[in-house]
Amino acid sequence: DTGVSQDPRHKITKRGQNVTFRCDPISEHNRLYWYRQTLGQGPEFLTYFQNEAQLEKSRLLSDRFSAERPKGSFSTLEIQRTEQGDSAMYLCASSLRGNEQFFGPGTRLTVL
Amino acid sequence: DQQVKQNSPSLSVQEGRISILNCDYTNSMFDYFLWYKKYPAEGPTFLISISSIKDKNEDGRFTVFLNKSAKHLSLHIVPSQPGDSAVYFCAASGRSMDSNYQLIWGAGTKLIIKP
Fold first, then answer.
1. How confident is the model at residue B98 (pLDDT cuts 50, 70, 90)?
2. Please, what is the average pLDDT of chain B?
3. What is the pLDDT of residue B99?
4. How many of the other CB atoms lie within 10 Å of CB of B5?
5. Backbone dihedral angles phi then psi of residue A71, each to the nearest 5 degrees
6. How far apart are CA B15 and CA B79, in angstroms?
7. Which residues of B lie inside 8 Å of A (Cβ-Cβ)?
8. Which residue from B minimizes the CA distance to A41?
């Protein structure tokens, strides 16, 4: 399977714990995006990488959130001191040309 | 402020008929529009896109129409099939406004195809 993959698919954690999600983009794609989606809403942009450089971060991304893309390949999104409001589907997408983004299956986070 | 709006939360269509999903936008800097389809517990799947230099793009059963003056686009699916039942998202981006091609999304329309 050469699509975007995300791990884990589901994560349940207690409030205050740290969580880390991983995204493996399509191999030749240099652009990588993280989005967050809550029920009944469309995805909301969180951050963007071109190769290993993080070029933009949304104001939604508080200082508890950090993302990396070492060597311009896979990416990780870490949430520290999780809060119940962080419960959402976290989506990763990659693209080559920019406009057409291809999404992974998402990681559903539940914070108890 | 919602820049991309899908005003119908759901739509029910008979199998074999045409499904028309609508999307409105407010930002005149948007120059590229996309439709994605999403099944439960899966990520969005790219369906079809259109650049602002065109007013129509067709791919098999899917056609997207763009009316720039009205800031409106629509997705036509004909004939509708049971497997088309999903949530459809409209998304927009603007190369001139944002070099990262960040997508701005509508809230989605749930399409139900009745047998």
1. low
2. 92
3. 61
4. 15
5. 60, 15
6. 7
7. 4, 9, 32, 34, 36, 41-46, 49, 89, 91, 93, 95, 100-108
8. B107
* Residues in A touching B45 (Cβ below 8 Å): 103
Instruction: Report the alpha-carbon distance of residue B68 to residue B54 in Å, rounded.
Output: 9
**A33 interfaces chain B, CB cutoff of 8 Å:** yes
Q: What distance in Å separates the CA atoms of residue A23 and residue A75, rounded to the nearest whole number?
A: 5
Token reading at A58: 């949304």
SS3 A72: helix
Output the six-digit token pair for A81.
Answer: 């001191």
Interface of A with B in 36-95 (CB under 8 A): 40-45, 48, 50, 55-56, 91, 93, 95
Measured from the Cβ of residue B7, the count of other Cβ atoms closer than 10 Å reads 10
The closest of B26, B22, B23 to B2, measured between CA atoms, is B26
Residue B103 has pLDDT above 90, yes or no: no
Q: What is the pLDDT of residues A85-108, one digit of tens each?
A: 999 999 999 998 767 899 999 999
Average pLDDT score, chain A: 92
